[in-house]
Amino acid sequence: MSKEMTSSRTSISDPIAEARRQWLAHGWEEAATGMAAVTTLTRVQQILAGRVEEALAPLGLTFARFEILRLLGFSRSGRLPMGKISDRLQVHPASVTSAVKRLERDGLIRREPDTVDSRIVLAVLLPAGTDRLDPATAAVNEVFAGVGLDDSRLDVLIELLSPIRRLAGDPVAGGEAEND
Amino acid sequence: MSKEMTSSRTSISDPIAEARRQWLAHGWEEAATGMAAVTTLTRVQQILAGRVEEALAPLGLTFARFEILRLLGFSRSGRLPMGKISDRLQVHPASVTSAVKRLERDGLIRREPDTVDSRIVLAVLLPAGTDRLDPATAAVNEVFAGVGLDDSRLDVLIELLSPIRRLAGDPVAGGEAEND
Q: Are A171 and B7 a contacting pair at CB < 8 A?
């Protein structure tokens, strides 16, 4: 799908730069750079998410389902409460439930009530899920290792975006001094 | 929706920094920074898109539908071929068709065949669409003007992400010298 979105024209102009020109021509100076930045972020996220999904598709996984498997793989006992998965992945509980149901149907995890507090539902990694994790992690890591920017630029990017996460109430590691 | 995704816990650690630690602990150094960057991009895009959608919802629009209206508003005659809309917005033709159908149902645009080449379908802005554009543009511009980073940082962000767009085949304005 991401391939179809590459330009089919040879001499088309940059659509984001063109939108910015329109914004400035209409006198919306205070919003033009923000518009260009949000549109750029959206486009780049679409490109990168597309690559991750392409890498995982042959393994019968989406990025959302991979992230849940990976989190369970990191946990000591291969089991986590559904609410904790939602917190750690910053994904809506309904989305976690839907992804977990699909993983369960595929035989990669199962759900069970917590033995101490039966109101808590646990997702439990099954051996088939563990087996799927190794090739899936290798596949996404190939994408992550080839994003197209060197690590120092990626670190600048992460730092640059931190204040937006912080403003949204996310817990963000690192210095509070975003105005260096 | 974005509000529900703000952390409900007081002392939870940064989930992206935590994932990065896990990546490093498992020996995936070459992919750890890329993973953290892609995850950060995804989260920030989710935060900002959520704000834009919240701003447009009272006006009965989504960002996808707003972008089409806005593009038609910029065009000289208020009409554009569907294929051109897809190109300019870098959105899949099927998504454009779906959004255009909804805009048509809402009485904001209509579709008509091009008079010269009837195989080409045009989307045509209607007066109700023009009326909706002013408040909708003001609403998204409020979000764009308050992204949470000053313009010079937003410009750094746009520049930093350009090579990824370029690698994906997007036409990107500005210098080719991404390795300054």
A: yes
